Recover the amino acids of this structure.
Protein backbone atom coordinates (compact mmCIF):
# COMPACT_ATOMS: atom_id res chain seq x y z
CA UNK A 1 0.00 0.00 0.00
CA UNK A 2 1.18 3.54 -0.74
CA UNK A 3 1.93 5.72 2.26
CA UNK A 4 0.04 9.00 2.14
CA UNK A 5 1.42 12.22 3.55
CA UNK A 6 -1.48 12.97 5.85
CA UNK A 7 0.10 16.20 7.06
CA UNK A 8 -0.38 17.68 3.60
CA UNK A 9 -3.66 16.44 2.19
CA UNK A 10 -4.03 19.24 -0.36
CA UNK A 11 -1.32 17.78 -2.57
CA UNK A 12 -3.68 14.90 -3.42
CA UNK A 13 -6.30 17.21 -4.96
CA UNK A 14 -7.39 16.67 -8.55
CA UNK A 15 -9.20 18.78 -11.11
CA UNK A 16 -11.91 16.99 -13.09
CA UNK A 17 -14.48 18.17 -15.60
CA UNK A 18 -18.24 17.89 -15.57
CA UNK A 19 -19.88 17.10 -18.90
CA UNK A 20 -20.22 20.80 -19.77
CA UNK A 21 -16.53 21.41 -19.06
CA UNK A 22 -17.11 22.95 -15.64
CA UNK A 23 -14.17 22.50 -13.25
CA UNK A 24 -14.76 20.04 -10.41
CA UNK A 25 -12.11 19.76 -7.71
CA UNK A 26 -11.71 16.52 -5.78
CA UNK A 27 -9.86 16.73 -2.49
CA UNK A 28 -9.57 14.83 0.74
CA UNK A 29 -11.99 15.79 3.48
CA UNK A 30 -10.45 17.74 6.33
CA UNK A 31 -11.75 18.24 9.90
CA UNK A 32 -12.87 21.78 8.97
CA UNK A 33 -15.40 20.22 6.55
CA UNK A 34 -17.45 18.53 9.29
CA UNK A 35 -20.38 20.95 9.33
CA UNK A 36 -20.59 21.42 5.58
CA UNK A 37 -20.41 17.68 5.02
CA UNK A 38 -23.23 17.08 7.48
CA UNK A 39 -25.28 19.81 5.75
CA UNK A 40 -24.56 18.16 2.43
CA UNK A 41 -25.95 14.81 3.62
CA UNK A 42 -28.97 16.51 5.23
CA UNK A 43 -29.74 18.29 1.96
CA UNK A 44 -29.67 15.15 -0.18
CA UNK A 45 -33.13 13.86 -1.14
CA UNK A 46 -34.24 11.05 1.16
CA UNK A 47 -34.02 8.71 -1.83
CA UNK A 48 -30.38 9.64 -2.55
CA UNK A 49 -29.49 9.29 1.12
CA UNK A 50 -31.23 5.93 1.27
CA UNK A 51 -29.33 4.77 -1.80
CA UNK A 52 -26.02 6.08 -0.51
CA UNK A 53 -26.27 4.44 2.90
CA UNK A 54 -28.36 1.41 1.88
CA UNK A 55 -31.04 2.36 4.38
CA UNK A 56 -32.91 5.27 5.98
CA UNK A 57 -30.73 7.93 7.59
CA UNK A 58 -31.50 11.62 8.09
CA UNK A 59 -27.90 12.63 8.78
CA UNK A 60 -24.56 11.08 9.62
CA UNK A 61 -24.39 9.72 13.16
CA UNK A 62 -21.68 11.49 15.13
CA UNK A 63 -19.24 8.56 15.09
CA UNK A 64 -19.63 8.10 11.31
CA UNK A 65 -19.05 11.82 10.71
CA UNK A 66 -15.95 11.49 12.84
CA UNK A 67 -14.67 8.69 10.58
CA UNK A 68 -15.42 10.78 7.49
CA UNK A 69 -13.32 13.73 8.62
CA UNK A 70 -10.34 11.69 9.82
CA UNK A 71 -8.86 10.62 6.54
CA UNK A 72 -6.54 7.61 6.58
CA UNK A 73 -7.71 6.07 9.84
CA UNK A 74 -8.15 2.29 9.44
CA UNK A 75 -7.17 2.71 5.75
CA UNK A 76 -10.43 4.58 5.09
CA UNK A 77 -10.55 7.79 3.08
CA UNK A 78 -13.14 10.43 2.19
CA UNK A 79 -13.04 12.90 -0.64
CA UNK A 80 -15.35 15.73 -1.62
CA UNK A 81 -16.10 17.06 -5.09
CA UNK A 82 -16.50 20.82 -5.16
CA UNK A 83 -17.45 23.45 -7.72
CA UNK A 84 -16.95 27.19 -7.48
CA UNK A 85 -20.36 28.87 -7.51
CA UNK A 86 -20.30 32.69 -7.42
CA UNK A 87 -16.76 32.45 -6.10
CA UNK A 88 -17.64 30.06 -3.25
CA UNK A 89 -16.48 26.47 -2.99
CA UNK A 90 -19.69 24.41 -3.08
CA UNK A 91 -19.78 20.75 -2.14
CA UNK A 92 -21.48 18.81 -4.94
CA UNK A 93 -20.45 15.24 -4.18
CA UNK A 94 -18.50 12.93 -1.95
CA UNK A 95 -16.97 9.49 -1.97
CA UNK A 96 -15.56 7.24 0.68
CA UNK A 97 -13.22 4.36 0.04
CA UNK A 98 -11.51 1.69 2.09
CA UNK A 99 -8.44 -0.30 1.25
CA UNK A 100 -8.58 -4.05 1.89
CA UNK A 101 -5.31 -5.94 1.92
CA UNK A 102 -6.56 -9.45 1.10
CA UNK A 103 -6.86 -9.40 -1.87
CA UNK A 104 -5.64 -5.87 -2.52
CA UNK A 105 -8.83 -4.04 -3.36
CA UNK A 106 -10.67 -0.80 -2.80
CA UNK A 107 -14.29 -0.71 -1.67
CA UNK A 108 -16.17 2.53 -2.26
CA UNK A 109 -19.45 4.40 -2.10
CA UNK A 110 -20.26 7.81 -3.54
CA UNK A 111 -22.99 10.37 -3.97
CA UNK A 112 -23.68 13.49 -5.99
CA UNK A 113 -25.95 16.29 -4.78
CA UNK A 114 -29.38 15.84 -6.40
CA UNK A 115 -29.15 19.28 -8.04
CA UNK A 116 -25.89 18.28 -9.72
CA UNK A 117 -26.77 14.76 -10.81
CA UNK A 118 -26.90 13.86 -14.50
CA UNK A 119 -24.00 16.15 -15.44
CA UNK A 120 -21.22 13.61 -15.66
CA UNK A 121 -19.79 14.36 -12.21
CA UNK A 122 -20.45 10.85 -10.83
CA UNK A 123 -18.67 9.28 -13.82
CA UNK A 124 -15.69 11.65 -13.48
CA UNK A 125 -15.46 11.03 -9.73
CA UNK A 126 -15.57 7.27 -10.28
CA UNK A 127 -12.69 7.48 -12.79
CA UNK A 128 -10.75 9.50 -10.26
CA UNK A 129 -11.36 6.82 -7.59
CA UNK A 130 -9.98 4.22 -10.00
CA UNK A 131 -6.79 6.25 -10.35
CA UNK A 132 -6.55 6.68 -6.57
CA UNK A 133 -7.03 2.92 -6.19
CA UNK A 134 -4.28 2.22 -8.73
CA UNK A 135 -1.94 4.52 -6.79
CA UNK A 136 -2.61 2.34 -3.73
CA UNK A 137 -1.56 -0.73 -5.67
CA UNK A 138 -5.09 -2.15 -5.48
CA UNK A 139 -5.94 -4.74 -8.13
CA UNK A 140 -9.68 -4.38 -7.93
CA UNK A 141 -12.34 -1.83 -7.12
CA UNK A 142 -15.80 -2.76 -5.91
CA UNK A 143 -18.97 -1.44 -4.34
CA UNK A 144 -22.40 -2.60 -3.27
CA UNK A 145 -25.67 -1.00 -4.23
CA UNK A 146 -29.36 -1.71 -3.76
CA UNK A 147 -30.92 -3.77 -6.52
CA UNK A 148 -33.44 -0.93 -6.91
CA UNK A 149 -30.72 1.70 -7.55
CA UNK A 150 -30.89 2.10 -11.33
CA UNK A 151 -28.69 5.19 -11.41
CA UNK A 152 -25.73 3.54 -9.66
CA UNK A 153 -26.10 0.38 -11.69
CA UNK A 154 -26.28 2.49 -14.86
CA UNK A 155 -23.15 4.39 -13.86
CA UNK A 156 -21.29 1.17 -12.98
CA UNK A 157 -22.33 -0.54 -16.23
CA UNK A 158 -21.31 2.44 -18.31
CA UNK A 159 -17.97 2.59 -16.50
CA UNK A 160 -17.15 -1.04 -17.32
CA UNK A 161 -17.98 -2.77 -14.03
CA UNK A 162 -19.17 -6.37 -13.87
CA UNK A 163 -22.04 -7.36 -11.57
CA UNK A 164 -21.92 -10.21 -9.12
CA UNK A 165 -24.24 -11.41 -6.40
CA UNK A 166 -23.47 -9.93 -3.03
CA UNK A 167 -22.39 -12.86 -0.87
CA UNK A 168 -24.04 -11.51 2.29
CA UNK A 169 -27.25 -9.73 1.29
CA UNK A 170 -29.70 -10.57 -1.51
CA UNK A 171 -31.02 -6.95 -1.59
CA UNK A 172 -27.62 -5.77 -2.77
CA UNK A 173 -25.78 -6.15 -6.00
CA UNK A 174 -21.99 -5.92 -6.12
CA UNK A 175 -20.20 -4.19 -9.01
CA UNK A 176 -16.51 -4.70 -9.50
CA UNK A 177 -13.73 -3.92 -11.92
CA UNK A 178 -10.14 -5.00 -12.25
CA UNK A 179 -7.82 -2.05 -12.29
CA UNK A 180 -5.92 -1.84 -15.49
CA UNK A 181 -4.99 1.76 -16.05
CA UNK A 182 -2.01 3.10 -17.88
CA UNK A 183 -0.63 6.12 -16.03
CA UNK A 184 -1.04 8.30 -19.08
CA UNK A 185 -4.76 7.52 -19.35
CA UNK A 186 -6.08 8.62 -15.99
CA UNK A 187 -3.61 10.77 -14.17
CA UNK A 188 -4.32 11.83 -10.62
CA UNK A 189 -2.15 13.42 -7.99
CA UNK A 190 -2.06 10.27 -5.84
CA UNK A 191 -0.68 8.31 -8.78
CA UNK A 192 1.94 10.92 -9.66
CA UNK A 193 3.10 11.15 -6.04
CA UNK A 194 3.20 7.33 -5.68
CA UNK A 195 5.22 7.04 -8.90
CA UNK A 196 7.65 9.76 -7.81
CA UNK A 197 8.13 8.07 -4.41
CA UNK A 198 8.75 4.70 -6.10
CA UNK A 199 11.35 6.31 -8.38
CA UNK A 200 13.06 7.95 -5.38
CA UNK A 201 13.18 4.63 -3.49
CA UNK A 202 14.66 2.93 -6.55
CA UNK A 203 17.38 5.60 -6.80
CA UNK A 204 18.09 5.31 -3.05
CA UNK A 205 18.43 1.54 -3.37
CA UNK A 206 21.28 1.90 -5.89
C1 LIG B 1 -25.44 7.19 -8.79
C2 LIG B 1 -24.95 8.63 -8.90
C3 LIG B 1 -23.65 8.77 -8.10
C4 LIG B 1 -24.68 8.98 -10.36
O1 LIG B 1 -24.04 10.25 -10.42
P1 LIG B 1 -24.32 11.29 -11.61
O2 LIG B 1 -23.36 12.40 -11.48
O3 LIG B 1 -25.74 11.67 -11.61
O4 LIG B 1 -24.01 10.40 -12.88
P2 LIG B 1 -23.47 10.90 -14.29
O5 LIG B 1 -24.16 12.15 -14.70
O6 LIG B 1 -21.98 10.93 -14.24
O7 LIG B 1 -23.96 9.73 -15.25
C5 LIG B 1 -23.07 8.79 -15.80
C6 LIG B 1 -23.86 7.61 -16.31
O8 LIG B 1 -24.50 6.94 -15.22
C7 LIG B 1 -25.76 6.43 -15.69
N1 LIG B 1 -26.86 7.06 -14.95
C8 LIG B 1 -26.82 8.21 -14.26
N2 LIG B 1 -28.04 8.47 -13.72
C9 LIG B 1 -28.84 7.46 -14.12
C10 LIG B 1 -30.20 7.15 -13.88
N3 LIG B 1 -30.98 7.96 -13.11
N4 LIG B 1 -30.70 6.02 -14.39
C11 LIG B 1 -29.94 5.18 -15.13
N5 LIG B 1 -28.62 5.43 -15.42
C12 LIG B 1 -28.11 6.56 -14.89
C13 LIG B 1 -25.85 6.74 -17.16
O9 LIG B 1 -25.27 5.68 -17.88
C14 LIG B 1 -24.97 7.97 -17.25
O10 LIG B 1 -24.46 8.17 -18.53
P3 LIG B 1 -25.32 9.02 -19.63
O11 LIG B 1 -25.72 10.28 -18.94
O12 LIG B 1 -24.36 9.23 -20.74
O13 LIG B 1 -26.49 8.17 -19.95
C15 LIG B 1 -26.02 9.63 -8.38
O14 LIG B 1 -27.24 9.34 -9.01
C16 LIG B 1 -26.20 9.62 -6.88
O15 LIG B 1 -25.49 10.28 -6.15
N6 LIG B 1 -27.23 8.86 -6.38
C17 LIG B 1 -27.51 8.83 -4.94
C18 LIG B 1 -26.45 8.12 -4.12
C19 LIG B 1 -26.18 6.72 -4.65
O16 LIG B 1 -27.04 6.04 -5.17
N7 LIG B 1 -24.92 6.28 -4.46
C20 LIG B 1 -24.49 4.95 -4.86
C21 LIG B 1 -24.18 4.12 -3.65
S1 LIG B 1 -22.78 3.07 -3.99
Amino acid sequence: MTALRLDDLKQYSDVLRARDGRVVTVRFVEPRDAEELQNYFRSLSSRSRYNRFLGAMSELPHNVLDHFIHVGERDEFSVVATIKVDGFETLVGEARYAFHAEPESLEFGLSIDDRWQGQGIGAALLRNLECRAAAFGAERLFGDTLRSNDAMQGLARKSGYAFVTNPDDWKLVRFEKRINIAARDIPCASWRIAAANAALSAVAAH
